[in-house]
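Class, carefully examine what follows:
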Amino acid sequence: MRHTLVPASYVMLLRGPLGEEEVLLHLRQNTGFRDGHWAMIAGHVDADESARTAAAREAYEEAGITIAEDALQPLTTLHRWVRGGPALEQRVDFFWLARTWDGEPRIVEPEKSADQRWFRLRDLPQPGVLHEEVVIEAYLRGDVPPIMTLTSSL
């Protein structure tokens, strides 16, 4: 059976020294996906853009910051799918690291973000978004493969 693969880009915006880094997360609301959860900057890749361009665009739209595309370092690609699920539950998530940007992060979409704060990677707020936490845990272990898979069942 053929399926539709839905692409999204995620930005792990980091500050601070290695081992003590903080990540910018926002508290989702009114989006229809993981509302009430703390999440990274993220969004779908539009039909007319690359995954890297989408990451830079989402950083501007969600946090009001400008990230040069060449400052976005590829971290991993995560294939998420639901065993026995609908075709639209095939997802591919491109995760990017960003340590440099222009501007001060702020809430740009208050209708979609109830809060936005920096958190230590080793002390994340709950609830978080599971597939983002899986990538952060791999990063903290120093063992992020180029491609990851996360499978769930109906």
